[in-house]
Structures are given as C-alpha cells and as structure tokens.
Design brief:
130 residues; mainly alpha; elongated
C-alpha cells in the first residue's frame, strides 16, 4: 500500500493515479479487517476497550493529517505531492510495526480490575443544624 501512495505522488498519468488510488483503498479495507481481527484475538474480554483505543488513534491520525498536509504543501510552495511521501512513510512505519504484533499472545493486564464496593454508614446521616 505504501508503494502505491508513492506511485500516486510520482505519476502524471491520470489512469495510473486512479488505479493506484483504487487499489490502495482495497488494501486499506483488508488491513482494517485484519487489524480488527488481531484486536479481538489479543484482547480477550477487553475487546471493547482495546478497539476503542485503536479507533481513537485511527481517527486522530487523519484529523492531524489534514492540518499537516496543508502545512507541508505550503512549505513546498504548493506541491501537493510532497505530503503523499509523508503518508507513505507513516504507512510503511505502521506496516513494519505491525509485523511485531503476535496475535497468538493474549493481552495480560497487570492490575486487577477495579471492583465497586458500596459502604453503608453505621449511623444515619443527620442534617446539620445552623
């Protein structure tokens, strides 16, 4: 997928650009399904929390990229291909880091889960007289 983003930045052929965009979107959908499956595999009964964290970072990346994309384009005198190299580098870094995730190894939390303990007062609460 990273390769396709770099090709998108370098090509001047519109047909090749559309093919690369379409193909990279297909790979993105496959990656999203795989990442979600790994999340369920490793998180056990904490799937909701881990999926929430994954979703949070998955949404903040594009949020910040909209600002960073414009800043990079301004710094390069309106070259809108330059930010695509940054996107390609981020995708490549994520892909390499994903290789180190072992889906067979379960997530183990070191801290016990908090429990709610309701304590009732031994004497009734009386209003304060003024």
């Amino acid at each position: 997928m990273e390769f396709l983003v770099v090709v998108e930045a370098l090509t001047s052929n519109n047909t090749m650009l559309v093919i690369c965009l379409f193909t990279s979107m297909i790979f993105q959908m496959i990656y999203a399904l795989t990442a979600s499956g790994v999340c369920v595999d490793i998180s056990g009964k904490h799937t909701g929390g881990i999926a929430g964290i994954m979703n949070f970072f998955g949404q903040t990346g594009p949020l910040f990229m909209t600002v960073i994309f414009g800043k990079i384009a301004n710094l390069t005198q309106g070259n809108f291909n330059a930010p695509l190299f940054v996107i390609g580098a981020v995708l490549l870094t994520g892909s390499i880091l994903f290789l180190f995730v072992d889906p067979t190894k379960k997530l183990v939390l070191e801290h016990p889960e908090p429990t709610i303990q309701i304590v009732f007062p031994s004497e009734p609460i009386r209003p304060i007289k003024s």
